[in-house]
Amino acid sequence: MQQRDNSIYYDSDGNSARRPSGPVARASVADDRGVSEQRVTALDQQVEELAQGLDDAQRRLEEARHRRDGLQSSQVSWPLYVVVILGLVTIVLEYVPASLYTQIFVSADDSVRTLLTLTFTVVGAILAIVLGELLHRTRRPTDQQVSDKVFIVLTVLAAMIYLYLGYRLRVAFTEVSGTTALNLSASEEALALTSVALIGILVTVISAYYRESYEAFAMRRKVGSLQQEVNRAQARYKEVNGDLTRARKAVAGKNGVATGSNSTTAAPPP
């Protein structure tokens, strides 16, 4: 029957090696075990520091969430990026009618008509933004002032004049040129274009009215940033904790090697 060779052992990587014997074996194993134990100590300290950092990040995340949840309902509404996208839609809806309104200026060259078109577009967008922001202040009674109501009335009047002026310009052009789209009358065609401009203004007014406050925007970004920080801390803690577990197993295995080495070199009993 073949006897097992106890001088062969396998390290933590699965590689086989011949176990040294005698004082050399004891010294080699002791040095190796000392290095491994130092690594375990270092990893243990690192895990403790990572755990403290993770707890701190989770605490700050909970505090940020608590402050965000404590905001008034009027402050938490449509995200600002949605408002920006709708603002771009408004610019397109204002540009199309404006480009047709300015066709009445037949004596102007292309650069002048382009400048007039951009002017009409910007004026419509600005009126929509201003009116939306003024109405947004009414959602928070503490921010309301008497002057706000005056400015709201003035802005509404300015928007009505803007739309009426665009309507009249298109009617005048259609009457001069004598051509309309889809066999519509001059007033019907002008009313259709003016309705497009009105829809663009309403889109921005409504989105600005329901937009989230800048404080809510900042808190939402902070919560998202802290959540990412917690996720990274958790991943790092899990990684280092796994290294610590494997290092402890390796030390335990080397302690077994040391015990086996001592048993092979001990003197036989009398």
What does this structure look like?
With 270 residues, the protein is mainly alpha-helical. The protein has 2 domains: 21-70; 73-224, no CATH class. 76% of the residues lie in helices and 2% in strands. The protein contains 6 helices and 2 strands, in the order ββαααααα. It has a two-stranded antiparallel ribbon. Helix 3 packs antiparallel against helix 4 (146-177). The protein starts with 7 loop residues before the first strand and ends in a 5-residue tail after the last helix. 18% of the residues are buried. Residues 23-31 and 258-270 have low confidence and may be disordered.
Question: What is the straight-line distance between the termini?
Answer: 27 Å
Strand order in the sheet with the most strands: 1-2
- General form: elongated
- Determine the oligomeric state from the structure: single chain
List the keywords:
2 strands, two-stranded antiparallel ribbon, single chain, 270 residues, mainly alpha
Q: What is the topological layout?
A:
Blueprint: E1 8-10, E2 16-18, H1 22-69, H2 80-101, H3 110-137, H4 146-177, H5 186-209, H6 214-265
Antiparallel strand pairs: 1-2
Helix pairs in contact: 1-6, 2-3, 2-4, 2-5, 3-4, 3-5, 4-5
Produce a short descriptive summary.
By secondary structure, the protein is an all-alpha fold. The chain has helices at 22-69, 80-101, 110-137, 146-177, 186-209, 214-265; strands at residues 8-10, 16-18.
